Structure formats: C-alpha cells, structure tokens
C-alpha cells in the first residue's frame, strides 16, 4: 500500500485512486457476478453435454459481504459497478441489495447486464433505485432461434422487458449480440437495421474462447472487421465520438439518420487491454484481474476468516497489482496454449 495515499476513511476519486496496476492503468470499474444461476442455458455458457454444477448458497458471497467489498473498493477510488451473473435478477431479494448499493454515495455509476427475462418485472424498480444503464444480451431476433440458443422459448418476454426498460426511461438501452458463425451471423443486417430504425444501441461482440465447454472455434469466431465488411451494402458506418458509456466498443451510426448506434466490441481482434480499467468479482468471491486469464485471488477466504476492512483493501490492491499487461489470447491460441477455463456464468462476462 503506497504510504503517501491513505485509504482509510475518506473516499478517493479516480484521479487520486490507489487502485493502479503495474502498467499504470487505474482500475475504477468493478464487475460483480451476483450468482452463477441463470434462467437461460445459452449455448456459449452451458457445455454440450448438459448442465453445470451449481454453487451452494453458502458458496456465494452474501449481500453483506458484497457490500463490505464494494465499500472498501469505493474508498480506494472505484466509481463504477456492474451487476452481472449468471442472471443477476434471479438472485433472491436482489432489489434490497441494489437499494443498499445505491446508498453508497461515492459510487457514481451502477449498471446491470441481464438477459431481460425478468426485466418487465424489475425495470421500474431498477430505474427508481438509480441504476444508470442496462445492457441486455440478445443473440437472435428470431423467436425460434432464440429458443434454440438459450434453451427457453421466451423471446417475447425478453422483448417486453426491453420495451419496459425503454418506457421507464433507460436510455440508451444496449443490446449485446455475441456473433457466432453458423448460429446467428445471418442476422447481422437485421440487428444493424434495428440500431438504425430505433433508439436501441446494438453491439456486436466477438465470440471469445472461454470455458472448457465453450463451442468457440476458429470456425465459429467472426471478427469485427468481417462483420463491418458484411454490413457494407447496408449503408455508411459513420464513426461517433466515444462517450463514457460506450466502454470498450467502437461506435458508429448506420447512416446519418440512424436513431440508435452500432458498436463493435473486439476483445480478440482489436483488444483493449491497454485501457482496461476492470476488476471482476466472481460469484464465489474470487477476484479476477483479467477476464481471459484464470488467475484469481480468493477474497472469500479473506472475508470469512474475519478480516478487517484494511485487509479487504490490501487484497483488492494485490489483485489489481496481479493484473497482466494483456490477455495475449491471439498468441496463446496460435501457440496452442489453449483458451481460458473460467466459467462465464461465475465470472459474469
Ligand atoms: N445473464 C446475463 C446476461 O445474459 O446478460 C449476464 C451474464 S452473461 C454471462 C453476460 C454476457 O456475456 C452474455 O450474454 C454474452 O453477451 C457474454 N458472453 C458469454 N460468453 C461469451 C463468449 N464466449 N464470448 C463473448 N461473449 C460472451
């Protein structure tokens, strides 16, 4: 812990954050996986041979433990938080937790990533609690295909959730589509048109080799450059100035009249490791400094041996200091070192 910067008591802004890694990146964005459980079984999360063993309730960090961690992180300069999972909205009493998070003053920005299945029920409360942005994962606009990808016939319910989120004032509502060749890549134009004809923001995400069970292969992977080339005939992609809410996506409008935006998230072909500001906390309480590296720091063990807040801060800092310079996934794949074995349902994407 640098002696010149006290982290006790006062909250720090990102400008004087103590959460700086060895490559001079300031880590200001914490992603919490609230549960490994999900009401969908998306084919990139669930192994071909079937279900994954679920964590027991006591394996998950409790809301009290999570709040302690978030308060400690905020006191070190963390300002942005994302709730993910599994499906964050299936965790019991999730709104009580969200309301307690929202009461943490220095936490400027709380967001959620959801599959949208329960959004009709929760959108209003999430908005009232002060959640600033919603990302919804949507990998197909075709109800039957949606059911095949997710294992649940609930496209209409998700679409209602999207509409509800818009109607209660979330703007923009972002849709994330993982592009998989032979699975949904024939819908690129339909998704792009959606971003032109509505205020929805659509972001194409490159499929990543995560999880021993992932169906990722060089054949299913489609690069952002290829996606752009395939949209060429639809109209001009006009670059838009990146706003703070765009994250790692490069953003465009499909034609000058487009109502929404179109984004490309390219973790493999144009990785953004040099400006990565993220730390992840998995649903079983492991700090993960890089999505695509399996090294984790066991924060749950620290919490459960009755630690002080200072020890939480030290553990957060140690995890930040262990952050690799980059994921090197292209080289790892080239040299057949393999992908990464973490489970997205526990890490949270
Ligand atoms: N249940 C929530 C949802 O569906 O948005 C949050 C968790 S889910 C793991 C978060 C998102 O991670 C997925 O919808 C998908 O966009 C992304 N994701 C999962 N596996 C991926 C992979 N192999 N490559 C790229 N993105 C992936």
UniProtKB/TrEMBL annotation:
It holds the Pfam family Radical_SAM. Residues 323-349 are annotated as: Disordered. One of its GO terms (molecular function) is 4 iron, 4 sulfur cluster binding. Its EC number is 4.1.99.22. GO terms for biological process: Mo-molybdopterin cofactor biosynthetic process. Pathway: Cofactor biosynthesis; molybdopterin biosynthesis. Signal peptide: none annotated. Residues 327-340 have a biased composition (Basic and acidic residues). The keyword Calcium does not apply. InterPro entries: Aldolase_TIM, Elp3/MiaA/NifB-like_rSAM, MoaA, MoaA-like, MoaA_twitch, MoCo_biosynth_MoaA/MoaC, rSAM, rSAM_sf. Catalyzes the cyclization of GTP to (8S)-3',8-cyclo-7,8-dihydroguanosine 5'-triphosphate. Monomer and homodimer. Belongs to the radical SAM superfamily. MoaA family. NCBIfam families: moaA, PRK00164.2-1. This is GTP 3',8-cyclase.
């Amino acid at each position: 812990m640098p002696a010149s910067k006290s982290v006790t008591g006062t909250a720090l802004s990102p400008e004087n954050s103590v959460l700086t890694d060895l490559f001079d990146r300031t880590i200001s964005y914490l992603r919490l996986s609230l549960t490994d459980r999900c009401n969908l079984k998306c084919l990139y999360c669930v192994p071909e041979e079937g279900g994954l063993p679920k964590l027991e309730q006591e394996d998950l960090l409790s809301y009290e433990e999570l709040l302690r961690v978030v308060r400690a992180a905020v006191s070190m300069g963390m300002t942005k938080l994302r709730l993910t999972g599994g499906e964050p909205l299936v965790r019991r009493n999730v709104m009580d937790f969200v309301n307690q998070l929202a009461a943490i003053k220095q936490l400027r920005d709380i967001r959620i990533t959801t599959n949208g299945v329960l959004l009709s029920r929760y959108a209003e409360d999430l908005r009232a609690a002060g959640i600033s942005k919603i990302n919804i994962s949507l990998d197909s606009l075709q109800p039957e295909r949606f059911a095949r990808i997710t294992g649940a016939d609930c496209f209409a319910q998700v679409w209602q959730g999207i509409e509800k989120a818009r109607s209660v004032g979330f703007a923009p509502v972002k849709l994330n589509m993982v592009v998989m060749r032979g699975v949904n890549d024939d819908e690129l134009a339909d998704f792009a048109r959606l971003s032109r004809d509505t205020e929805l923001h659509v972001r194409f995400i490159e499929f990543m080799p995560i999880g021993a069970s992932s169906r990722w292969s060089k054949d299913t992977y489609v690069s952002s450059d290829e996606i752009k080339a395939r949209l060429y005939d639809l109209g001009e992609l006009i670059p838009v100035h990146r706003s703070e809410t765009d994250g790692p996506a490069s953003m465009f409008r499909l034609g000058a009249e487009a109502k929404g935006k179109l984004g490309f998230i390219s973790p493999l072909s144009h990785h953004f490791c040099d400006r990565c500001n993220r730390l992840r906390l998995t649903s079983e309480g492991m700090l993960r400094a890089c999505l695509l590296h399996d090294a984790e720091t066991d924060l749950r063990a620290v919490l459960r041996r009755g630690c002080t807040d200072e020890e939480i801060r030290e553990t957060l800092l140690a995890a930040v200091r262990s952050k690799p310079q980059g994921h090197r996934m292209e080289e790892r794949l080239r040299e057949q070192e393999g992908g990464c074995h973490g489970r997205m349902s526990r890490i949270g994407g």
